Amino acid sequence: MEPLLLLAFAAILITCVLSGHSMFIALFAGWVMFFGYGLHKGKSVKQMLLYCKNGIAVVRTVLITFMLIGMLTAVWRSCGAIAYIVYEASALCSPQSMIIVTFLLCCLVSFLIGTAFGSAATIGVICITMANSMGVPILYTGGAMLAGVYFGDRCSPVSTSCLLVSTLTHTDQLDNIKRMFKTAAIPFILTCIIYLVLGTQVHASGVSNEARTLLAQNYVMSPVTMLPVIAVLIFALCRVNVKLTLAISTAIGILVTVFVQGFSVSVIPQLLFSGFHPANADLTQIMGGGGLISMFNVIGIVCISSSFSGMFDGTGFLDNIQHLIIQLSEKISPFAAILLVSLFAGTIACNQSLAIMLTSQICGPLEDDESQFASDLENTAVVTAPMIPWSIADAVPLVTVGAPSLCILTAVYLFLVPTCNLLAQNLSFSKVKLWIHA
């Protein structure tokens, strides 16, 4: 029954994605199916509701952080922090450098704001707009954008997926980030080399200053606007609690918004709730967004996904699948098994949060070291979800910048992270097996 239910859930998810219907329809249908499975197994309605509650309770801290991140991204847009970074960096661009610049800028901004969707909607839109005006193929820049926005989504101290992984594995988020930088060093360098080589194949001319002019006309361009960003970096290095870090950065950003950008104090509550929406329509298209309301969708997805996790745990839904994966891991290495499960989870989940939760729940027994397991999740489920063409993890960033799904093929960083780690860990796994047999 379990595989049939998963296949039915996958079919509903894919149908909703392809038909353009809300993801919540599929998630609610899945909730009904898995709730019914528990009743079929002899669980009471009260027990099933308790399982759902337990699942959501696990990610309670994550949900609070989501709200803080929503307010933070709105304030960073209004205070000019993101605009200042874009303004200064865009002056150095040429058609031949746009691919690598798009990747690096998206890496930087996604690391600062911790969200792939938010990065795509801000720096991603600007980079792709500039590249298009120069005649740079969107197949290249779209892939570079997708890879860059998930660089920070994977390892930023304010990333929701990073926080979710640390919560599920009961590990320290900042320690996880250190490991992630180590395991991504080679993939990052190789990605930069590939994008530099691709840049030499670009034969285009002309530089667009429209985005820079628009930002200069609507913001006070001052290094002071970087104070909220600097605060996050300093507090992260000092290992200050993530929620406190976000709150302090938001407070500093509000002060910069009022005293540097000249906003009225009376607009701050609306800014925090509904996000930054300037009067200039062109600026809104580039910089608009953020706020508590921007996180409602992802909060809803995580709540339903975590209730799935609670029901699966309480009913033993994944026990048979987990047993098969444990046997498989003994033959091909734990990391290889986790990678396969993450691809399967991403395929049926169609969103990153549920893919991470399913992979964590199925593969938990494969690693005794919780820190290693957290690293494995970051190097698999977090970066494989955007590789699935019908997943919102892939569709939303690409649709936001107007790029085709084919750009997945040039998001080389997403492929290199699991591939390089698979080669490294399988080599170590093979040595251990040889030593045991010897």
In brief:
The protein has 438 residues and is mainly alpha-helical. The protein has helices at residues 2-19, 23-40, 45-58, 60-79, 81-90, 98-113, 116-134, 138-155, 160-169, 173-200, 210-218, 227-237, 242-259, 268-274, 281-287, 296-315, 319-332, 334-349, 352-363, 370-378, 381-384, 392-401, 412-437.
Can you characterise this structure?
The protein is mainly α and 438 residues long. The chain is 76% helix and 0% strand. Helix 6 packs antiparallel against helix 7. It is globular and about 65 Å long. GO terms for molecular function: antiporter activity. Residues 148-401 form the Na+/H+ antiporter NhaC-like C-terminal domain. The chain crosses the membrane at residues 6-37, 58-87, 99-128, 184-204, 216-237, 244-272, 292-312, 332-358, 403-424. Keywords: Antiport, Cell membrane, Membrane, Transmembrane, Transmembrane helix, Transport.
Give the arrangement of secondary structure elements.
Layout: H1 2-19, H2 23-40, H3 45-58, H4 60-79, H5 81-90, H6 98-113, H7 116-134, H8 138-155, H9 160-169, H10 173-200, H11 210-218, H12 227-237, H13 242-259, H14 268-274, H15 281-287, H16 296-315, H17 319-332, H18 334-349, H19 352-363, H20 370-378, H21 381-384, H22 392-401, H23 412-437
Helix pairs in contact: 1-2, 2-16, 3-16, 4-9, 4-13, 4-14, 5-11, 6-7, 6-8, 6-10, 7-8, 7-22, 8-10, 8-22, 9-19, 9-20, 10-20, 10-23, 12-13, 16-19, 17-18, 18-19
